[in-house]
Design brief:
This protein is of the alpha/beta class. About 50% of the residues lie in helices and about 15% in strands. The strands form 2 sheets. It has an 8-stranded mixed β-sheet with strand order 6-5-7-4-8-9-10-11, with helices on both faces. A 3-stranded antiparallel β-sheet has the order 1-3-2. Strand 9 (about 305-310), helix 12 and strand 10 (about 330-335) form a beta-alpha-beta unit. The structure holds guanosine-5'-triphosphate (GTP) and magnesium ion (MG). Magnesium ion binds near residues 181, 212 and 251. It is found in: Cell membrane.
């Protein structure tokens, strides 16, 4: 390899020198300006240059070859290397740009699968996740698509403030230990503040467990309201008569979702008129399948609404939100702690969806800000 430096007043003159001395096969190694002039460093593979300059002796049968600079071995190798390098770069770019498209556009199966994974991680069922994705309007960007999905999820929650449901009688059902009695204490406490303790009364259908009655009795004492225990139509009728003119809350015994007595308590209360509010408490900390089975004990539209309890204990919230949405249960409120009444809140669908998103740690930055804007 022979390396030379050529200095001229401009590139054209310097290149002319390179070509004149080293020939068309010369490789340009560097090109820079030095003291107002152009300096070109060029090299030539001496062996190839000689091989090209002195044609090989041919056999009689071999046709005469006239090597041209473009077809010289050095140029061919360089060209091949260049092609390979370009191919490699093209592959890298394809991969990179393909990936970016996958991340940023709102279309295509890959994008849907990212969104589906997020929804499943939140605890939603495949059915609801599929429905949300099917209704997704076409959009170019993943973050926009995600925002639309969580907003739609919030909209799918039917919100109903407890007070907007008519009824002087409110019965609260649910699994064991989900927070039925606490919910009653909170709602009754609120009513007492509004209409006074002489307008509120309590009944418990939990005649099975002494402890349960004691718990409600101590709430009744603290609130200054009467409490009756009933276990059949007759005793319930008597209790309601004695508390006529009061807004009455009926506490029920916590039952497993498979226990037929859950439904029997509902049937007993239902017998007292159409204006009874039937409220199901679903614990967010319970399994979604458990909540689903509990809700399935009641015919469609049998319940006036649901309250989601133990939001603070939940690992994920999508499951219980899914149950509320698919059972078309109006959401009356949610609780996120043991304090009475501070930890019972009116239902706020977007807030619950925001918490569901946060718990799943899917994209905390998006909903917190955007959902507030959306609301
Ligand atoms: N962390 C948390 N605890 C709650 C919440 N709501 C109720 N609890 C607690 O859950 C426990 C059970 O609450 P209860 O109100 O007695 O539940 P219940 O459904 O009446 O229970 P049973 O009548 O035994 O079926 C109590 O220790 C409550 O303080 C909540 O939102 N968050
Ligand atoms: Mg109870």
């Amino acid at each position: 390899m022979r390396v030379e430096r050529y200095v001229a007043r401009d590139s054209r003159s310097a290149m002319a020198q390179v070509r004149a001395e080293l020939g068309a096969d010369a490789l340009i190694l560097a090109n820079r300006r030095v003291a107002g002039q152009v300096e070109i460093t060029a090299a030539i593979d001496v062996e190839h240059a000689v091989a090209n300059a002195v044609p090989k002796r041919r056999s009689a049968s071999e046709p005469e070859r006239r090597p041209t600079p473009a077809a010289s071995p050095t140029n061919e190798i360089q060209l091949k290397a260049l092609e390979n390098e370009l191919e490699r770069l093209r592959n890298i770019l394809d991969k990179e740009l393909g990936g970016r498209k996958w991340q940023e556009t709102g279309k295509g199966p890959a994008q849907k699968s990212v969104l589906r994974q997020r929804l499943l991680r939140m605890g939603l069922s495949r059915t609801l996740a599929g429905e949300l994705l099917d209704r997704l309007p076409r959009t170019e960007r993943l973050d926009v698509a995600w925002r639309q999905i969580v907003t739609t999820l919030g909209d799918r929650l039917q919100i109903s403030e407890a007070e907007t449901i008519p009824g002087e009688l409110t019965a609260v059902y649910g699994g064991t230990g989900v927070g039925k009695t606490s919910t009653i204490a909170r709602l009754a406490g609120e009513d007492i503040q509004r209409i006074g303790s002489n307008r509120v009364g309590l009944v418990t259908l939990d005649s099975y467990r002494v402890g349960a009655q004691e718990q409600l009795a101590s709430f009744a004492d603290a609130l200054g309201v009467p409490l009756f225990v009933a276990d059949d139509r007759q005793s319930l009728s008597l209790a309601l008569k004695k508390m006529q003119g009061r807004k009455i809350y009926i506490d029920t015994a916590g039952m497993s979702q498979h226990d037929a007595r859950l439904r029997r308590q509902y049937e007993l209360v239902r017998g007292f008129g159409k204006t009874v509010r039937h409220v199901l408490v679903l614990a967010a900390s319970a399994q979604a399948s458990q909540c689903r089975a509990l809700a399935a004990n009641f015919a469609p539209r049998a319940l006036s609404g649901a309250i989601i309890s133990k939001v603070d204990e939940a690992q994920s919230l999508g499951g219980v939100l899914d149950v509320v949405i698919s059972a078309r249960l109006p959401l009356l409120g949610f609780s996120d702690g043991q304090r009475i009444p501070e930890d019972l809140h009116y239902a706020d669908g977007l807030e619950l969806v925001r918490r569901a998103v946060q718990l799943a740690d899917v994209d905390p930055a998006v909903p917190a800000r955007q959902l507030r804007v959306a609301s």
